Amino acid sequence: MTRNMGIVDRALRVIAAALLIYAALVLPMLGHGILHWLALAVAAIFLLTSVVGNCPLYSLVGLKTCRDC
């Protein structure tokens, strides 16, 4: 699998994932309903794509945010 995500993109996804996890686990407005699980699922996807360095949606669209790939 080739990389299609740059370092800045990956870092922003990790930050967004951390904020979503915080919102899901700490903020009472999400509770334990569908928004809670949706926030955790999106955070997991963001973390997974950041670690791998490949976003399937970017591949479909033909977008690359890295300079050397």
UniProtKB/TrEMBL annotation:
Give one Pfam family: YgaP-like_TM
Where are the bilayer-spanning segments?
12-31, 37-61
Residue span(s) of domain Inner membrane protein YgaP-like transmembrane: 1-67
Q: InterPro entries from the entry?
A: YgaP-like_TM
Q: Which UniProt keywords apply?
A: Membrane, Transmembrane, Transmembrane helix
Q: Kindly provide the name given to this protein in its UniProt entry.
A: DUF2892 domain-containing protein
Name the source organism.
Roseibium aestuarii
